[in-house]
Design brief:
Length: about 500
């Protein structure tokens, strides 16, 4: 999917005019109270909820953020939560998430739909000139939304017949064919030209959704699976706009009125008009900055096919933010999102010697995605980080050798070499190293989409959130992290200069 294809058919003129007006209005109010809209996305379980919770907690509680310049130089007077500007969007449940993380030491509930919160920072400008003119106040509207929904945007440029064709092409890839088999078999018994029938539509939609969900499963860890609401329905569960599926054997011909083909096509159109477009118009088109979280470790562990799939997803995601030239919409975009951070999360599963390798892998992935997405104009950076650091480092002597280990409390039920953990005991784990030859990861991915993954490079157990230290006065210290400050500096540092 290339950006320029998107651009030609993304929205109608009326949509564009509305977006232009919204944007102008947004900018006008921005003059009085400077605000920045920060989008946080990533596929499910990538770490969005944990990232936002940790970011806000560290700012509000003055956490250790040496690479975040404004904080380091003591220019931040205070950071606090305010009412968000959009009344119709659910609020990000920050307090619940922090209570889970800090008090109960359990991971918070993951993102299932869009949510938002406003964090306001009062600061002193670094330059005397700016100090005279600026109020030294910045409101950051943090918008959390599932990456699955973003991956739907390319569908705006595809007809139902094209969508169907691509879905069947993807489904027979070696890494997917076994998972898609029963849906394909069911589809094989269907005559698209027969009279429309609700039960057939439902059976097909359910079988198709089951296949998509299976792809997402841990061992397979695949990423590109539109339509996104089949995995993350939000409040649309069971609605007709979600009761469709690709149909086999469609050429470019038109559907016979009254046929199953016509019915599915109409629902696909409804999905585009009533689900994808409003989401794009009301949320994506208004963003200033964006962080895309990826679970590169899981993909690495699942093997080359999962890496190739993650790269395809990253390409499509980046293409969404820059839908090509020659379109009012894209012009708006090019002035809006000016910084994108691609962040590999959960780096605390690795010893620090591997952090730079992880970052290098993400850089390669992002560079290739940028090149493929025909993408220019925004600054893109990458980071390997842990929004919440659940482990610390140590060494273990084994004979004459000293091995670097990570130490943490594995979640109850996690296992390594047959040992099952109870969720209470701290354990030292030798996590393994990422390959120092980064190319190897991608060459394998290029070679072919293999089915059986090679030996996973990293031993992966999930840990409980860390126990927070308290000071003598009983104040809880902020959440530990890895390079969260670097992410913050790139995303908002310049706005606090
Ligand atoms: P979301 O679906 O993108 O909102 O994902 P979450 O933020 O809920 O994260 C999913 C899971 O990944 C969590 O339940 C944690 O188990 C794990 N996780 C996320 N971020 C971190 C991190 O920084 N460190 C560690 N150790 N685990 C993390």
């Amino acid at each position: 999917m290339r950006g320029h294809i998107l651009a030609t058919s993304l929205t109608t003129f009326a949509d564009e005019a509305r977006i232009a007006l919204d944007t102008l209005a947004g900018r006008a109010t921005g003059l009085f109270s400077p605000s920045l809209r920060l989008g946080v996305t990533g596929l499910s379980r990538a770490g969005k909820t944990v990232f936002i919770s940790a970011l806000v907690h560290n700012l509000v509680h003055g956490g250790r953020l040496p690479l975040f310049e404004a904080q380091k130089s003591g220019r931040i007077a205070r950071a606090f939560l305010e009412q968000q500007p959009d009344d119709a969007v659910p609020r990000f449940q920050y307090e619940d998430h922090i209570a889970a993380l800090v008090d109960d030491r359990i991971w918070p509930d993951s993102t299932r739909a869009i949510s938002e919160m406003r964090l306001t920072v009062e600061y002193e400008s670094a330059s005397g000139w700016n100090r005279m003119f600026s109020a030294g106040k910045l409101s950051i509207d943090i918008v959390d939304y599932p990456g699955e929904w973003l991956l739907d945007l390319p569908l705006l440029g595809k007809s139902f017949n094209e969508f169907s064709r691509e879905a069947f092409e993807m489904a027979v890839l070696p890494v997917r064919s076994d998972l898609s088999q029963s849906w394909r078999e069911l589809s094989g018994t269907i005559d698209a030209n027969a009279d429309a029938d609700e039960m057939t539509a439902r059976r097909l939609a359910e079988s198709f959704a089951l296949y998509l969900k299976a792809c997402k499963h841990d061992e397979r860890a695949l990423s590109t699976l539109p339509p996104g609401r089949f995995l993350m329905p939000g409040d649309l569960e069971g609605s007709p706009a979600l009761t469709f599926a690709p149909l086999p054997g469609l050429g470019d011909g038109r559907a016979r009125p009254g046929s199953l083909h016509a019915m599915m096509e109409r629902r696909y159109e409804a999905y585009r008009t009533h689900v994808i477009k409003p989401f794009f118009r009301e949320h994506i088109a208004r963003l200033d900055r964006q962080i895309v979280l990826i679970d590169a470790l899981q993909a690495l562990n699942s093997g080359p096919a999962a890496m190739a799939d993650l790269e395809r997803a990253a390409t499509e995601i980046l293409a969404c933010f820059r839908p090509g030239r020659g379109n009012v919409l894209s012009d708006l975009f090019s002035r809006r999102i000016d910084r994108i951070l691609v962040a590999a999360t959960k780096a605390d599963h690795l010893h620090h010697e591997s952090h730079d390798r992880l970052q290098a892998i993400v850089r390669r992935l992002a560079d290739r995605a940028i090149a493929r997405a025909n993408f220019t104009g925004a600054a893109v950076d990458v980071v390997a980080m842990a929004a919440v650091r659940a482990t610390r480092e140590g060494t273990v002597k084994q004979g004459k050798e000293t091995l670097p280990v990570i130490i943490g409390t594995p979640l109850e039920g996690e296992r390594i070499d047959g040992e099952v953990f109870d969720g209470k005991t701290e354990t030292a784990i030798f996590p393994g190293d990422l390959p120092d030859n980064i190319n190897a990861v991608f060459e394998q991915a290029d070679a072919q989409l293999q089915r059986s993954p090679p030996e996973p490079p990293v031993r992966f157990v999930r840990f409980r959130p860390p126990k927070l230290e308290r000071t003598a006065e009983g104040v809880t210290l902020s959440l530990p992290h890895i390079r969260l400050d670097r992410a913050l500096q790139f995303l908002i540092g310049d706005q606090l200069a």
